[in-house]
Amino acid sequence: MTSRPTLVVGAGQAGISLVAELRALGDKRPVVLVGDEDEPPYERPPLSKGYLRGEHNRSSLTLRDAAWCAEHGVELVTGDAVVSIERGDEGGLALTRSGRHLDFDRLALTTGASEAALPVDGAELDRVLTLRTVRDADLLAAALRDSRDVVVVGGGFIGLEVAASARLLGATVTVVEAADRLLARSVTPVLSDFYLAAHERRGTRVLLGTTAVRIHGTADRAEAVVLDDGRELRADLVVVGIGALPRTDLAAAMGLEVEPRGIVVDRRALTSDGATVAAGDCTVGPNPFTRGRPGRLRLESVAHATDQARVAAATLLGHDTAYASVPWFWSDQGDLRLQIAGLPHGADQLVIRGELGSESFSLLSYREGLLIAIEAVGASADYVVVKRALERGMTVPANLAADPSIPLRRGLQTAVTGTSDPPNNPPPSAPRS
């Protein structure tokens, strides 16, 4: 057996999940886990929520610390980055930014994603911030403490979570979204309308169908955001949350197949060379959801990163395992908890259980009579039933689901599948949590 290590490039959720799964499956060969941040692997979802508001300390974010890595034979390299990789049939060699050479037998790419920059004049000013890393969150938390007027550019999950946190901290907040509805990439229009009203009830101003074209400032400090219709929004802090870009540079330089949405993988998390695996936010692959539309899909969530990484670990060990998990997500926006299971894209029927105004309801999406997703706000019981039903190949008839007096669990039936949307019509990227 070779003594050369397994190299895992990227020490985020997917990277540490892959390493932990290798050990859980009994693999004892050495592992080198390389992360470009100075931190051990940590959770990202709290960064826009409790951590940003000062409700969690830094240590509470840690997934696996240096002591765990040492105990499990994992060399954790932080504050360095792999800049080039050469590999052949029998392993390869990687070079890091610091000049370190890493010989390896097996290779996993869990390089994650980076937050997209706003391509306008003034985006380089101080107090124009993005949120992806714990360092970003520290900078943003400090800025929020003395900000009165906050403009959030982007009405996706990160933007709305930050907006809610900023409002809870007492700031005046305006969200600027280019699309005609909030969360347009990820949720049904009914849910978009609900979140628009809910954020406005909490004092956040939301501008839809509007883009930022310039940021004014003096002495390198942002002071106003100029919109495409000529209006100016006063701002002593601008937060940009317009999407995440998969980090594919290493894969492309290796000659692996990549596309704008990520490193292309198959159901086993194998890349195009048939040897390297990849997992997490950096990948695009077959839709793992059997009731989803066919075609490649990019998912951004903790659940996806964890589940795909486990499959990647099994693939490295020669196990025949396929990624076939039901996608699920969550988003805490202030006091509103959203839970999603399945993918609502392509639905032809929507059932509303509960009253939207009560802020406790669930939306069930159907396609050709088959339950394909739930979006639950303050309705965890419905969410749990549907998530389990989707995992077990079951459904709930729409007419029963529409009656709020009937618990969803009483309507569970074995699903009759066999229909799908036409191929070559892939769904958009799904949300992150």
UniProtKB/TrEMBL annotation:
It holds the Pfam family Reductase_C. GO terms for cellular component: cytoplasm. It comes from the Bacteria. InterPro entries: FAD-oxidoreductase/Apoptosis, FAD/NAD-bd_sf, FAD/NAD-binding_dom, FAD/NAD-linked_Rdtase_dimer_sf, Reductase_C. Residues 411-433 are annotated as: Disordered. The keyword Oxidoreductase applies. The keyword Flavoprotein applies. Its cofactor is FAD. Residues 423-433 have a biased composition (Pro residues). Residues 328-410 form the Reductase C-terminal domain. Keywords: FAD, Flavoprotein, Oxidoreductase. GO terms for molecular function: oxidoreductase activity, acting on NAD(P)H. Residues 7-309 form the FAD/NAD(P)-binding domain. PANTHER family: APOPTOSIS-INDUCING FACTOR 1, RIESKE DOMAIN-CONTAINING PROTEIN-RELATED. This is NAD/ferredoxin-dependent reductase-like protein. It comes from Humibacillus xanthopallidus.
